[in-house]
Amino acid sequence: MSRTRRQRRRARPAIPGAEFRTFVAIVRRLRRECPWDRKQTHRSLRGSLLEETYETLDALDRPATADLGGELGDLLLHIAMHATIAEETGEFTLRDVLTGISAKLVRRHPHVFARARVRTARAVLANWEEIKMQEGRRSVLEGIPRHLPALQRALRVQQRASAVGFDWRSPAGALAKVAEEAREASRARSARDREDEFGDLLFAVVNAARFAGVDAEHALRTCVDRFSARFRYIERALALKGKRPGDATLAVMDGLWEEAKRRERRRRSTCRTRR
Predict the structure, then answer these.
(1) How much is the pTM?
(2) Closest by Cα among 97, 99, 98 to 86
(3) Are 210 and 154 in contact (CB under 8 A)?
(4) What is the DSSP letter of 15?
(5) How many CA atoms lie within 13 A of 7 on its CB side?
(6) Are residues 91 and 41 in contact, defined by beta-carbon separation less than 8 angstroms?
(7) Sign of the alpha-carbon torsion through 158, 162, 168, 170
(8) Alpha carbon distances (Å) from 275 to 62, 264, 268, 270, 272
(9) Mean pLDDT, rounded, of the chain
(10) Contact predicate 206/151, CB 8 Å
């Protein structure tokens, strides 16, 4: 491949100014002329924004990148719609959104846009948290949404605390805490104590997963997917015999469960061989 062709392939795509203007014009027209879009408010769009966010997460878990592009477009539609509603009510404008996030990115990346020096991703995060405190936050935990899924919120809290040095010194400490919390959960007697201790246990597991480089939210989601697939295998296998899970013994269902796991392992092995 010639040097010119390599340079062309590495060239950054042009910023899509015309396409962005067309997109915004379409959203604004929808607000004027579409009865459904016209009646939407910030609050009425909350549910669909959350749904689109989860659809984007699903797309991230799939190999088809075209799906991800479509879901990002749906998210962008929500951003433009909220900005358009805000423009109509005089809250802020789309220009304010763009200039605000640009200014924030520059301000919080002095190692890129100024003369600050950082050597690691961890140092970048610590610097980021320090800058946010300088901007007026009273706690490093401020700004973490309470409505995040609980495992994800636990991870964000732990990451923020870690960025300012409040953390275990090694993965061993985090794992030992899991064992400690499991023992305390097993000794809990009252309903309130059990809730508290199992909460502590879950928090400790998220922390240990973080040290292992595992996103607990994603790990649990894929675990639920595996469980669901195996249980459906049990249902299908029993249905071939004219039965349902409630008609079978636990021993029979356990045997089918292990059979489902063996089939999974064979499929994974076949996929690796084909690669």
Answers:
(1) 0.66
(2) 97
(3) no
(4) P
(5) 3
(6) no
(7) positive
(8) 17, 17, 11, 9, 5
(9) 89
(10) yes
- Chain center to CA of 40: 26
Backbone angles phi, psi at 249, to 5 degrees: -80, 160
10 Å Cβ neighbour count for 157? 17
Residues 28-86: pLDDT tens digits?
Answer: 999 999 999 999 999 999 999 989 998 998 888 877 666 899 999 999 999 999 999 99
Buried (b) or exposed (e) across 160-190, using 16+ Cβ within 10 A?
A: bebbeeebbeeeeebbebbeebeebbeeeee
Q: What is the pLDDT of residue 130?
A: 80
Rounded Cα–Cα distance for residues 200 and 208 (Å): 12
Please indicate whether residue 108 or residue 26 has the higher confidence score (pLDDT): 26
Task: State pLDDT tens for residues 161-214.
Answer: 988 889 999 999 999 999 999 999 999 999 999 999 999 999 999 999 999 999
Helix H segments across 108-190?
Answer: 110-113, 121-134, 150-163, 171-187
- Do residues 236 and 255 make contact, with C-beta atoms less than 8 angstroms apart? no
Question: 48-77 burial, b if ≥16 CB within 10 A, otherwise e?
Answer: ebeebeeebeebeeeeeeebbeebeebeeb
Do residues 229 and 260 make contact, with C-beta atoms less than 8 angstroms apart?
Answer: yes
Q: 84 with 25: CB under 8 angstroms? A: no
Q: Name residue 220's amino acid.
A: L
* Tokens (6 digits) for 216: 């607990």
